[in-house]
Each structure stands twice: as C-alpha cells, then as structure tokens.
Design brief:
Elements lengths: L9 H17 L4 E17 L4 E3 L2 E16 L2 E19 L3 E5 L2 H7 L13 E19 L6 E22 L10 E2 L7 E16 L2 E12 L10 E4 L5 E2 L4 E13 L1
Antiparallel strand pairs: 1-3, 1-13, 2-4, 3-4, 4-6, 5-11, 6-7, 7-8, 7-9, 9-10, 10-13, 11-12
C-alpha cells in the first residue's frame, strides 16, 4: 500500500502537519511554546510468532522540534517534527526453520548471485537499522510548580514515516556480520504507534525550561513486509510468513522549551 509513496512529498507533508496545530492555536486563546529535543533511545523489535524472537537492541537518537499549545495553565497539546535515527532491532529465526525465505529481493540486489545459497535456513539473526521521520500528537499534563520544578505525564500517538532502512545478517556465513544493505523492499513505509512518558520541567528563566524524563513508545502497525515470503519447518508444509513485526523504544527525554 505504501511502497510507492513519493518520498519527495515528505518535507511538504511533514511541515504542513507540524504547522497546522500552530495555525489553529493562533486562532484560539492560549499560549504557544516551542522547543528542541535530543533524546537517546533504546529500540528493539518483536513479533507475534514465538519462533521469531527479539535478539538485541539498537542505540539511537531522536532530534527535532517540539510545539505546545496551552489550553489551560497546566495542560497542553503537543506535536513536533522528529528524526529518529538508528531505530529498529534484531529478530532471530529459530533453527527449527529449515528454510527462511525473507529479504530475498534485498539480498539479490545487494550480493552477487554466486554468493547466495539456494536456500537459507533458520538460526540466523536479521538486524534492522531504521530511520523515521516522526510526527507526535498528544497531551501534556502537569502539576503545579514546586519551586522551579513541575512534574508531567505525556500520553502520545505517533506517525512514523520510514526514510531509511538498512539490514544486516549475523552468523550467515555467506555475508559479513558488519555488512549492511538496503532493505527498503522488506519494510513498510508507515509506522503508527503510541507512547507514554513522564518527567520534570526545571525553569531556568521566565518562559524557558529544561525537560528531562523517560518514556516508552511502541508501534502497533506491522512494520515488516511478508507478502510472497515463506517459512518451512521439518515435516510441515510451507507457510507464508505472516508474522507482525513491531518496534518498541525506551526514550530518555531531554530537551529545552522556550
């Protein structure tokens, strides 16, 4: 559905979505505030198949802009425009599989035909290195100020657009563990998710505050492309790989609001 999405439209769409809340807020009573964030992340992948398991996490970073519209003193809507670098994680296909027919197109494009085996068995780890353009939309609920500090809780929905997707195989033998290649054909272009975070705001001057906290973010859309792929186990008929792969992240929220 999203494989033919025109990437040249992304900047226009992203800027429009980011500016829309600001335009709406300008027509309403209330305060509008902007900020920046540089938040380390720890991401991993999981599936709903008990023979395809998480096998490692990615250390990444979120960089971007934050916009908040205060509709009451301690309550605001927030949105933003973030780049989430090196998200993803590693999925391990158990060695019960005698054939794992995924990433075939990507491997065909990245490696010479002579390097590829006729069949790839289980017991390998598939590492996803992904980059997202993220647009969050949510609420920020704050306490009253205690000295210079306020505490907050932030439930959020996220729209993620995959802007880069690289992959690598561990212990494959026919390709180096460190060698990565384009896996765009094997990753869906849109990721939807939810998040929940909390932390503190420390006021350093009138209208300026440092933000620090921790959050959890999880996708609920299938990020992996399974169409046309198959899995084979000893003594069983081949079946389509219809597992649902998703990315989850722990975010160390760091930023400043002006």
């Amino acid at each position: 559905m999203f494989k033919n999405f025109n990437l040249l439209r992304l900047p226009v769409i992203a800027i429009a979505l980011f500016l829309l809340p600001a335009f709406v807020a300008a027509q309403l009573p209330g305060d509008l505030q902007f900020g920046i964030q540089a938040s380390p992340t720890f991401s991993s992948m999981s599936t709903n198949d008990n023979l395809i398991n998480s096998d490692g996490s990615n250390l990444g970073m979120k960089l971007g802009l934050v916009g908040e519209y205060y509709f009451r003193e301690n309550y605001s809507f927030h949105t933003g425009l973030n780049f989430h670098f090196n998200a993803g994680g590693t999925l391990f296909y158990e060695d019960q599989y005698t054939k794992v027919d995924i990433w075939r197109e990507s491997l065909d494009s990245a490696l010479p035909a002579s390097a590829l085996p006729d069949s790839i068995s289980g017991g390998l780890s598939y590492k996803y290195d992904l980059q997202f353009l993220e647009i969050p939309l949510g609420l920020t609920l704050r306490t009253r100020e205690f000295g210079y500090i306020r505490y907050f809780v932030r439930p959020t929905f996220h729209l993620g657009i995959v802007t880069k997707s690289r992959g690598s195989l561990k212990n494959a033998g026919f390709v180096e563990d460190e060698e990565d290649f384009d896996i765009n054909k094997d990753v869906n272009g849109i990721n939807l998710g939810w998040g929940l975070g909390g932390g503190i705001e420390y006021s350093i001057s009138t209208g300026t505050a440092i933000i620090a906290g921790i959050g959890y973010q999880s996708g609920f859309a299938d990020l992996t492309t399974d169409k046309g792929t198959s899995l084979l186990r000893e003594g069983r008929n081949p079946r389509e790989d219809d597992s649902k792969g998703k990315v989850s992240s722990i975010v160390l929220m760091l930023g400043i609001m002006f």
